[in-house]
Amino acid sequence: MTRVFLAISLVSSVFLTFACVDKSGTGTVGPAGDTIKVGVYGDLTGQTSSFGQSTKNGIELAVEEINAAGGVNGKKIQLIIEDDQGRPEQAKTVVSKLINQDKVQAVLGEVASTNSLAAAPVAQEARIPMITPSSTNPKVTEVGDFISRVCFIDPFQGSVMAKFAANTLNAKTAAILGDVNSDYSKGLTQFFEQEFTKLGGRVLAKEAYTQTDPDFKGQLTKIRNLSPDVIYIPGYYGQVGIIAKQARELDMNMPLLGGDGWDSPEIWKLGGEALRNTFISNHYSAQNPAPEIQNFVRAYKAKFNVEPDSLAALAYDAAKVLADAISRAGGANDSVRLKDAINSTKNFAGVTGTITLDANRNAVKPAVVLELNPAAGAFQFKETIYPEGMAPPATASNTMPGNMNLNAMNSNSNMNSMPGSNMNAGSKANTNPAR
Question: Is the pTM of this model over 0.90?
Answer without folding.
Answer: no
